[in-house]
Design a protein that fits this description.
Elements: E1 3-11, H1 17-28, E2 31-43, E3 49-54, H2 57-71, E4 75-78, H3 84-96, E5 102-104, H4 119-129, E6 135-136, H5 140-147, H6 155-167, E7 172-175, E8 186-192, E9 197-203, E10 210-211, H7 213-226, H8 231-247, E11 257-258
Parallel strand pairs: 1-2, 1-4, 4-5, 5-6, 6-7, 10-11
Antiparallel strand pairs: 2-3, 7-8, 8-9
Helix pairs in contact: 1-7, 2-3, 3-4, 5-6, 7-8
């Protein structure tokens, strides 16, 4: 059994974070394990406002010991970390256990929040984790934060940001969320391997409430790498996977709704 770890926050509503990761791992036919960094909640009495409750350092380290030392992993991804000690612990375990298939999803905000949770923490992620990442998967906002480009509005700016991020150490940069570019008529994402750019396009699926798409994409890439396929093929497959998931998305309530990773079963490459 191929074993993949997610080091990420738990979404109490079930649509994003490690819950989305585990659903994705299941569809890819890999065995998923978790180290919970924080719990994210949403307040139905305050317009679904998010609360973030970090897991203490000792408990997080114990989880990582269980996963990496006790079981072992073929690939790992990290999502929202939330604390400086979580960043340092991820650096320690990815380095110590020489995880080559490490996917860094540099989650900086909860859905619906407009500003980075902590610019200094984001800088720590860039300095300590980018050099370890086989693939980093920022959305447009996160790519702007990592590259220093204030606002990414075009494919050319995506390319510029990808170059800067790669220079900071990531082997491959996959910038997602191109559907939010100015005048976007397609879902355009960008893969940069340090030498060349690849634009990966699909039809634009518009929803006002889906969350967890970024988590799902990074989890799919990690699962693909764990199964032994190349970075390029893992990204292409992840793009198809998230399109299927979004096609099956649904509203949970008036504020939010998840994708549906199980929608992939209709066209499951691994069946």
């Amino acid at each position: 059994m191929v074993k993949v770890a997610t080091i990420a926050g738990s979404d109490a509503s079930g649509g994003a974070g490690l819950e989305a990761d585990l659903k994705t791992f299941e569809e890819y036919g890999v065995y998923g394990m978790t180290a919970v960094t924080l719990i994210a909640t949403m307040d139905p009495d305050n317009n679904w406002a998010h609360g973030v409750f970090p897991i203490d350092e000792k408990t997080l380290k114990a989880q990582l010991e269980t996963v990496f030392k006790g079981v072992g992993v073929t690939a790992a991804k990290s999502g929202m970390l939330g604390t400086f000690y979580a960043v340092e612990l991820v650096r320690e375990y990815i380095s110590t256990y020489k995880i080559k298939n490490y996917v860094l999803d540099p989650v900086m905000v909860c859905k619906g929040n407009d500003e980075a949770l902590n610019p200094e923490l984001n800088q720590s992620v860039a300095e300590k984790l980018l050099p370890l990442a086989n693939v980093v998967t920022p959305n447009l906002f996160e790519a702007g934060q990592l590259s220093g480009i204030k606002e990414i509005l075009s494919v050319e700016q995506m390319k510029e940001a990808a170059k800067i991020i790669a220079e900071k150490g990531a082997a491959n940069v996959f910038i997602k969320g191109g559907s939010k570019l100015l005048d976007a008529s397609e879902a355009v994402d960008l893969l940069y391997d340090g030498k060349s750019f690849e634009l990966i396009k699909d039809r634009l699926i518009k929803t006002n409430w889906v969350h967890g798409a970024g988590c799902t994409v990074s989890a799919a890439i990690a699962a693909g790498l764990a199964r032994g396929i190349s970075v390029y093929d893992a990204v292409i497959l992840a793009k198809k996977f998230i399109s299927q998931s979004l096609n099956g998305s649904f509203a949970l309530n008036k504020w939010v709704g998840p994708g549906n990773p199980a929608n992939w079963r209709k066209n499951n490459l691994f069946s």
